[in-house]
Amino acid sequence: MHFSIQNFLFLLVAIAGFGLFAWQARKIRANISVGRDRDMSGNVSERLNKTLLVAFGQSKMFKRLTPAFLHLIVYVGFLVINVEVIEIMVDGIFGTHRFLQFLGPVYDVLMATNEILGALVIVAVVAFWWRRNRKPPVRRFQGPELRAWPKLDANIILYVEVILMAALFTMNTADLKLHQLRGTEMPGTFPISGLLVGLFPSSEAALHVLERVGWWAHIIGILCFLNYLPSSKHFHIIMAFPNVYYSRLVPQGQFSNVESITHEVKAMMDPSYEVPAPATAPDGSALAPTPFGAKDVNDLAWTNLLNAYSCTECGRCTSVCPANITGKLLSPRKIIMDTRDRMEEKYNSPLIFSPNLYGQEAKHESQEVLDKENHTLLRGYVTPEELWACTTCNACVEACPVNINPLESIVEMRRFLVLEESAAPNSLNVMFSNIENNGAPWAFSPSDRFNWADDLYVAEKEVVTA
Amino acid sequence: MADLAAQGETPEILFWVGCAGAFDDRYKRVTRAFVRILEHVGVKYAVLGMEESCTGDPAKRAGNEFLFQMQAMQNITTLNGYGIKKVVTACPHCFNTIKNEYPALGGEYEVIHHSTFLQQLINEGRVKVEGGESYKGRRITFHDSCYLGRSNNIYEAPRAVLEALDADLVEMKRSKANGLCCGAGGAQMWKEPEPGKKDVNIERTEEALATLDGNAAALDNLYGVESGNAGATPAPKANGQGSIIAVGCPFCMTMMSDGVKNKERENNVQVFDLAELVASAEGLNA
Question: Residue B54 is nearest to which of A64, A391, A435, comparing CB atoms?
Fold first, then answer.
């Protein structure tokens, strides 16, 4: 152990980094909790299973092989290289050097894996960058909602990942060369750094500086990146796990039941039915009634808001959406991104960046149809035209690698349009009144409902007489 | 059903006809085909007739929860009044609603889609799919309905039924969990589509026709499908006999039939429901 001013500095930097992150995380927690209550307790083993399979196991990524493979490299790299971060933390605080070397042969394997994954991560990141920035980019990165900040955000993440890997290799190579010059045994096995030693200077002093620069750049880079996450789509590396844990367990076709309406309908059908008393505030006064459906972010369930923070804007939902494929305005990804933007506009923005400041306007192609007066999620961000284009086919839900459900938010906003504003397209109003009057969505008389059978018996009689 | 109840009898199954099955001229043929199959195998069944009402599915998908629950409670009262335990329906929308959304309102039944029911009949040997029209050498592609497939994970039953027909079953590139909607779900059936490049049913019909013609690989407009992914099966070149787009849903039936007409391919491509295919293979056609 070798204490120095460095250890004191490191402790300060680490406390500042994690403290800042905790502060930002609290803001996001507060944002998510403005959503409506929804009981997601229970089914623990089923939920854990799902989390293991979908979040840890990446099972839904493998619908598309190329990006799945590249993502797997970065993901496994992230997990394994984080073991080295543990080592960096311990070394940083206690002034040890390569503290994990007591693992012996395991340490050899660990370091070798780290290095190979580090190199593969760089390859994968370059491929990701190419997919996004070539002309034209991969189709799902072309949507109008991916302009301005979301596009820059995606690239920043890729650049930072390359910098972090470069810092790691600088540190290892300099350390390796120092050991070679001194003729001492370096703990661990470093297949990539071994190839790079030739490129490094032969002065011990320079190598020592390079080793320290690599070490500090890596850990400061990680702490900065950690605090960048809450402003970024990259937050999914944390939020994907709770999001999958709290995903819906019922069949995708089952839409939520609106309890308050059930009470009303039961009271209509049975006069003796007692409607539960409305909720009261702690001081006993009646609370303002909650609207049907969702007009703004706080009308959505907290799980829908958690969805918004878990979205990595990959666009798999939008690229399978039948409405989007055929050129309609609806993009499930945009609905989710809008939810997050509106949340941060209305409540807390993360500390460092407010994505709203970065070209919010440019993100929406249809600015002119947005209602600036009623500046809420619905109308201020999402237009009714987008909502009415949805076929509720669940393709977006099926496609999302982290079990986000854009459909639920779409249906909640439709409910608001229909039940609070009576603002359904006219042809749908006709369909509603047909159901109400005739018990069928078409204008047929209920007394004709059995007519199909007439033909059947006629046909059968013919068969008999023939 | 009322007649049966008056005689003090309960049916083995209740056949939920659905609004399309009762009123849509094309889908009435499916209703009759399914009833012929039921009578052929001697299942004791009943229908509600005039006592049936819309399940409320289009109202719920469109956001009219109030109307949905009114419909649901009314139907649940009727079904519970007759002591119904088992419901079979040829409409995935009715199927999904009764199966998944009625329980929260007091309606618990065993709900079966007719594709599953037909598969059971074939497995049990009660329907042999022979003696009628032969499908040997004809190409069939199955269009997955969202409310059967993704919504309720029923992918194998309709395919098992089609395999029993001894036809050449070819898969579209977007099939099963990746299937593309016909464009009519979520109450789209009752409204004009929003402005866009084309209608969803045209996109889907183009895909189905290309698959049946054996050039699915030539389709370059398949958004959402990673190129090189397995899934589509190569089909032999057209041999002059009519190919078939098989469906298991009245909305899909309408949308795919309209698409085929739009592409002017009615002369060699037909759209049939699973029940119609089984009935005619069994020689039960009207």
Answer: A435
H helix intervals, A347-439: 377-380, 384-388, 395-399, 406-415, 426-438
Would you say A351 and A228 are in contact if contact means Cβ atoms under 8 Å apart?
A: no
Q: Which residue of B has its CA nearest to A139?
A: B223
Query: Residue A362 has what pLDDT?
Result: 53
Q: Which of B17, B35, B64, B202 to mutate to test the interface with A (most CBs of A within 10 A)?
A: B64
One DSSP character per residue, A79-109 reads: HHHHHHHHHHHHHHHH--SSGGGGGTHHHHH
For residue A36, give the 3-state DSSP assignment: strand
- CA A216 centroid distance within chain: 30
Cβ pair B101:A64 closer than 8 A:
no
pLDDT band, residue A461 (cuts 50/70/90): very low
Whole-prediction pTM value?
Answer: 0.91
Of B69, B150, B190, the CB nearest to A252: B150
B101, B177, B228 ranked by CB distance to A254: nearest: B101
pLDDT value, residue A465: 36
Q: Containing H/E element for A381? A: strand A381-382
Q: Which of B66, B173, B203, B225 to mutate to test the interface with A (most CBs of A within 10 A)?
A: B66
Cα(B254)–Cα(B246) distance, integer angstroms: 12
ipTM confidence score: 0.91
DSSP string, chain B: -HHHHHTT---SEEEE-HHHHHH-HHHHHHHHHHHHHHHHHT--EE--GGG----SHHHHHTT-HHHHHHHHHHHHHHHHHTT--EEEES-HHHHHIIIIISGGGT---EEEEHHHHHHHHHHTTS----SS---TT-EEEE---TTTTTTT---HHHHHHHHHTT-EEE--SS-GGGPPP-S-TTTGGGSPPPSSSS-HHHHHHHHHHHHHHT-GGG----TTS-TT-S-PPP-PPP-SSPEEEEESSHHHHHHHHHHHHHTT-TTTEEEEEHHHHHHHHTT---
First CA to last CA distance, chain A: 103
Distance CA A75, CA B216 (A): 34
Complete edge-to-edge strand list for the sheet that includes strand B45-46: B45-46, B13-16, B86-89, B110-113
- Sequence-distant (6+) residues with CB within 8 A of A250 are B100
Look at the alpha carbons of B69, B73, B78, B82 in this order and tell me if their dihedral is positive or negative.
Answer: positive
Distance from CA of B33 to the nearest CA of A (A): 9
- Chain B closest CA to A280's CA: distance in Å? 24
Contact B229 A385 (CB under 8 A): no
Measured between alpha carbons, how far is B1 from B109 in angstroms, rounded to an integer?
Answer: 16
What's the gap in Å between the CA of B162 and the closest CA on chain A?
23
Burial of A422 (0-12, 13-18, 19+ CB in 10 A): exposed
pLDDT in tens, A145-158: 888 788 888 999 99
Cβ separation A261–B199 shorter than 8 A: no
Mean pLDDT for all residues in chain A: 87
- Least CB–CB distance from B183: residue in A391, A417, A450: A391
pLDDT tens readout for residues A107-139? 888 889 999 999 999 999 999 999 999 889 888
Task: Flag if B185 and A455 touch (Cβ within 8 Å).
Answer: no
Task: Check CB contact under 8 Å for A399 and B224.
Answer: yes
Residue B233 has pLDDT above 70, yes or no: no
Alpha-carbon distances of B184 from A264, B143, B235, rounded to whole Å: 30, 13, 28
Q: Do B150 and A393 touch (CB under 8 A)?
A: yes
Residue B207 tokens read as 């895909």
Pick among A330, A431, A455, A457 to test the B interface (most B CBs inside 10 A): A431
Q: CA of B240 to nearest chain A CA: how many angstroms apart?
A: 31
